[in-house]
Fold this sequence. Notes:
Radius of gyration: 18 Å
Amino acid sequence: xxxxxxxxxxxxxxxxxxxxxxxxxxxxxxxxxxxxxxxxxxxxxxxxxxxxxxxxxxxxxxxxxxxxxxxxxxxxxxxxxxxxxxxxxxxxxxxxxxxxxxxxxxxxxxxxxxxxxxxxxxxxxxxxxxxxxxxxxxxxxxxxxxxxxxxxx
Length: 153
């Protein structure tokens, strides 16, 4: 199937000019214009290049980490099954986690359960190897006395 990158570019240009005042929260699932991508990157579908995505981490009112979803059955470390109120089986595609802008959001579908969200958090943490990291509070890691921002031992 030939991909129509021009059509996606036109849609992306329109999205970029859009002024958005969407209010969103972590755990919510939204239709998201993730676009037409290359290789193993997940594509959106239809004329608006949409795919549902879980708001995984909200950084501010304009950007977040989103995890695209699929209804295809998938198993393994890169997939977490989730459910919404419509009981349609879905899978979070952890390997497709990406930074997204709020202008990509179209409309809210629902909210994943706290347990589903905890499962996604745990799986992403495990994939990143972060379970073995020891986090040091910033005040102990960086000196803030004379404006010197170089790391201190």
